[in-house]
Amino acid sequence: MLWILFPLGFYALMFRFIRGLGASTALTDAFPWGLWVGFKLFAVALAGGGFTLAAVVYIFNIARYRPILRPMVLTAFLGYSMFISSLIIDLGRPYRVWHPVVMWNPHSVMFEIAWCVMLYTTVLFLEFVPAVFERLGWERPQRWLHAAMIPIVIAGVILSTLHQSSLGSLYLIVPEKLYPLWYSPLEPVFFFTSSLCAGLAMTIFESWHSSRSFGKQLDFPLLSGLGRVLAVVLSLYLTVRTLDLVHRGVLGLLRQPRTETYMFLLEGALLFVPMFLLFRPRVHNNPTWLYFSSVLVLLGLVTNRMNVAITGMQASSGTYYFPKWSEFAITLSLVALAFSLFWLAAKYLPIFPASAHGKASSATKEPLPELVHAGP
Amino acid sequence: MSRGLLYDATLCIGCKQCEQACAEENGLRYDESTAAEAVQSDHKYTVVLTKNDKFMRRLCMNCEDPSCASVCPVGALRKTAAGPVIYEADRCMGCRYCMLACPFNVPKYEWGKALPKVRKCTMCPQRVQAGRPTACAEVCPTGATISGEREDLIAEAKKRLRENPGNYVNRIYGLNEVGGTAVLLLSSVPFEEWGYPAFGAEPMPMLTYRALSHIPDLVTVGTVLLGGIWWITNRRSEVAMAEGPKNGEDREEE
Fold first, then answer.
1. Which terminus of chain A has a smaller tally of CB atoms within 10 A, N or C?
2. What CA–CA distances, in Å, run from B4 to A194, A335, B148?
3. Cβ under 8 Å to B: A residues 192-211
4. Are A60 and B222 a contacting pair at CB < 8 A?
5. Residue of B nearest to A58 (CA)
6. Is A148 in the B-facing interface, judged by CB distances under 8 Å?
7. Closest partner CB to A110 (pick from B73, B108, B215)
8. Which pLDDT does position B245 carry in this prediction?
9. Which chain B residues are Cβ-neighbours of A172 within 8 angstroms?
10. Quick one: average pLDDT of B41-65?
11. A367 touching B, CB under 8 A?
């Protein structure tokens, strides 16, 4: 599969840079943001687990969740890398991607996003790099980083909160363009909350795959606990969203037989079904069902981000946008690349605690004082 | 004082000389096929629409508080004191947020180019700066488009509405819409029919500004809160360590 996808993606990439956006995308003046923007919104949502777990482990000192930290931080790092890659591809003049560093406009949501991405990618790198140092056996940089970790984590949590929510704020300025089922003044809150769901679901998803590939995985009780947390956060998110729809009085729109209605219902189903499933002990105590539910959540959130970026903007644009083959090829290649990198990292770095591996790593690790006793 | 344009559709004869003058001013090709195009694009910044012998111009409204300038992450689009909303191509990185955000869908992109720019009417900034009329106003044979101080143009528009109420829809489009625009429109046909939506008086940038204005508070409160929580949990585990290992840890895990 990858042998076909990667060459195709590479060809599409060359096509995009040589011929320009007009030739390589279905974007037009009436529809200037498409698949790549939707993909960016989702890629960043995946990072929602990274900062939550970092806060839980480092700030709240809940050691039980420490084993999940690394897969989550790695996921977040790869999510951000995908964001940056697709941003560079999507920009009309990619070589000016650094412009926000020196050319400021603090009134722009996009400016804030640019800064959050730069800073938080650095934070994620610093949070993840101990795994690499550990593998290489470099103890001194490990210790330096460890000393600075608390401020780094605090900065990370704040930057993420800003960034996740500001992706929703992007659309606040187009009340007359985004379909009312998705346009809400609470959009920043929705983006933030759902990013937590995406991060949790992704961890379950990855752990399941990792256990199939290398037999390395997280303790099942821990994953099962994540499933329950996911159910709670998801129900919170869906409650607030439903209340918002009721409050804005737009639920009547669902009676209209149109694409927006169907896509909205699809999104709703993909989120409500796993929420109900995950509340049932039979589901969150069964690895296959847990995996299945997390896949549904991920699909639901992809649908949500694509609905905001594409479905919801369709009607007001007066045109019909459907991505070109090259847009799909590049997006899918980026996804495949991220999975491959995760696979490589899980294989060669101490990401998931394996039986023997896990002991070795927790011995060399220099954990917070009280974590010394938190071994398995 | 900020300058603007007043377009009175009832005086327009649809000669499209403004289209041609605009193309010349901006160094764009203008021929019969361009003249026939009825949409704004990267090679046509203003359009005269025709419907049942009525006319209406479309051009950048050069808003008083423009969405495009507000959303541009690098400040490539800017409202000048003289009135025009200008574009500095050297800053633009091509995120196209301006195109998404503009309530009038004015900014257009050079989709055919490998290194594209955003294109739009910038209300002839050099001319306006020097106190001269814009190219379109200068060439207009009937005075349908006139250039001047925005305040004077508003007074003139009000006078026309007062003196010939039967000729017009009783509204100056751009007086308050999205916080006011430098370009003001008068018409005998409701503006919605020409694709000019009925906007409120609040500038669109306020919508994102309200969200962005929470950032400083969030950063301060967040840092203090997280730092405080860390200090407490850290102190607790230090105390637990001193009192004897294991006990403290177990209690915390419950």
1. N
2. 45, 49, 6
3. none
4. no
5. B230
6. no
7. B73
8. 56
9. 207-208, 211
10. 96
11. no
Q: Determine contact: A123 vs chain B, CB below 8 A.
A: no
* Residue of B2, B7, B1 whose CA lies nearest to B187: B7
Interface of A with B in 38-77 (CB under 8 A): 55, 58-64
- Model confidence at A301, pLDDT cuts 50, 70, 90, reads very high
Contact A298, A290 (CB under 8 A): no
The vertex-A343 CA angle with A338 and A346, nearest 5°, equals 125
* DSSP H or E stretch at residue B148: strand B145-149
**Beta-carbon separation of B219 and A162 below 8 A:** yes
Determine the pLDDT at residue A207: 84
Residue with tokens 């939550």: A52
Question: Which residues on adjacent β-strands are paired with residue B8?
Answer: B186
pLDDT tens column, A133-167: 888 888 888 888 888 889 999 999 999 999 999 99
- pTM, 2 dp: 0.89
pLDDT the model gives residue A274? 96
Phi and psi at residue A29, to the nearest 5°: -60, -35
Q: Tell me the mean pLDDT in the region B219-233.
A: 91
pLDDT at A144: 86
Residue B56, helix vs strand vs coil:
strand
Average pLDDT over residues A1-13: 91
Contact B41 A29 (CB under 8 A): yes
In eight-state DSSP terms, residue A95 is G
Element of type H or E holding B186: strand B183-186
Task: Tell me the DSSP string of A292-305.
Answer: HHHHHHHHHHHHHH
Residue among B89, B82, B92 nearest B125 (CA):
B82
pLDDT band at A24 (very low <50, low <70, confident <90, very high): very high
Distance between CA atoms of residues B142 and B71, nearest Å: 37
ipTM of the shown complex: 0.88
User: Which residues, including other chains, have CB under 8 Å from residue A329's CB and lie 6 or more apart?
Assistant: A5, A8, A9, A11, A12
Would an 8 Å CB–CB cutoff place A112 in contact with chain B?
A: yes
Return the bridge partners of B147, or none.
B5
Work out whether the CA dihedral A32, A335, A195, A279 comes out positive or negative.
positive
Assign B130 to helix, strand or coil.
coil
From CA B80, how far away is CA B67, in angstroms rounded? 14
What DSSP string runs through A359-370?
A: HHHHHH----GG
Is a pLDDT exceeding 90 seen at residue A218? Answer: no
